[in-house]
Write a structure and sequence with these properties.
Elements: H1 15-35, E1 38-39, E2 45-47, H2 48-52, H3 57-60, E3 65-67, E4 73-76, H4 81-89, E5 99-108, E6 120-129, H5 134-150, E7 157-162, H6 163-172, H7 177-188, H8 192-196, H9 202-211, H10 219-229, H11 234-252, E8 257-260, E9 274-279, E10 288-292, H12 296-299, E11 307-313, H13 314-323, E12 335-340, H14 346-358, E13 362-365, H15 372-381, E14 386-390, H16 392-395, E15 399-404, E16 409-414, H17 418-423
Parallel strand pairs: 1-5, 7-8, 12-13, 12-14
Antiparallel strand pairs: 2-4, 3-4, 5-6, 6-11, 7-9, 9-10, 10-11, 14-15, 15-16
Helix pairs in contact: 1-5, 1-13, 5-11, 6-11, 10-11
The structure holds adenosine monophosphate.
Residues 79, 109, 111, 116-118, 121, 123, 267-268, 286-289, 311, 313, 315-316 line the site of adenosine monophosphate.
Amino acid sequence: MPTFQTVRGMRDLLAEEAEAMTFVMDKARETAQLYGYREVITPVIEPYELLSAKSGEEIRQRMFTFKDLGNRTVALRPEFTSSVARLVTTSLKNEPKPLRTFSVGSVYRYDEPQRGRYREFYQSDFELIGTSNPEADAEIILLTDRLMRAVGLRNYAFKLGHVGVIRGILTQENVDEKTQNAILQRMDKKEFEEAFKLVESEECLSTLRGSLELKSDDVFKTVERIKSHVEGYCKAAESAEDLKNILRLVTEGGCPVQTVEPTFARGLEYYTGMIFEVYIPELDIALGGGGRYDKLIELFGGEPTPATGVAHGLDRIVLAMQTQKTTPTTERKKRVAVVPINEALKGEALRISQMLRNAGISAELEVMGRKMNKALEDADRRKMDYAVIVGERELKQSAVVVRDLAKREQAVVEIAKLSKTIIG
Ligand code: AMP
């Protein structure tokens, strides 16, 4: 047999990496709870039709799509929003609004693997459904801010935009939606000349070109510039006003917005309003992103329902934490090796292990039947805190030997006082 490797783009997360990932997941869950987002667990496999409906050409081409044995065309979810939109038109149809949902788990995209880009990766996803007010968009950005802070990241900054600005211009110039999507997709990749080739009207072209020049260091000034630049375009001007309101609320909430980009676009097609991403200076890949999608639920057969949301790239947040050398602040549980002196004391050792676990101490019982020296060497190598040595002589006095592996000291401790001694 050959030795097996993971499939290209798939990774094993071993102990430390898995711990870092669950640390971030826990923080995301904590954030969800603080903001009142209730968790929903949806399937990894969904109908291809659902996932492809509005995710955009870019992601559609990168989906893991296949036929199941019942000849249904299905795909691995490339994101959570479509699944949540499905819920909103079915099981959660009659839920009072606003509806706040939280999901966390793996998603799949056939991206070209590189640092921070994998084919299986993890996201936490927050959706706020049922309102088009700017405070909803602000909430989504602010909870992302909280998560970034909760995992210990520094100097992160937000980039904001509004697809309503460019779409507003294009709609008024009678550019059809498909072409609009193609233009936004190229803008997302900063291929502006390619994007402009798809525009016929000279006036429209000059407005679009002009929008590339609007950025300034002051985010509020940029918004004002956008507003006056699109004055003749009614929907675009409304969008600029909406962006200004969101920006004001987010700034009041103490969140660092570094740039407002008039031509900012995102890969997913369903966005209709504010869009944003968050970065740290050391990495040029986004740690998370989201925006408003007011048409998706209707497209899935539901009532017209405005919504906004965000997906955080958890693998990239872990990468950012490593890059900034932030150490998780969770209290490390004491780890104890429990070693019986001989075969006959296995049962006693097991009983003591259970007692330690009941007190919240991590206990690893010697299960390899090794001699004391070997077992202690192994506990040392694994950087355990203590070894509890179970011997006949001490047991007669209802006691065991506790060895502090770092200090290399040991003492006889009554079993009744064991947990307390270890916890310290
Ligand atoms: P999106 O669903 O495209 O808005 O992506 C949300 C976040 O997921 C991004 O900001 C990234 O942090 C993360 N992400 C997207 N694609 C990948 C990938 N191939 N590998 C790892 N993380 C990703």
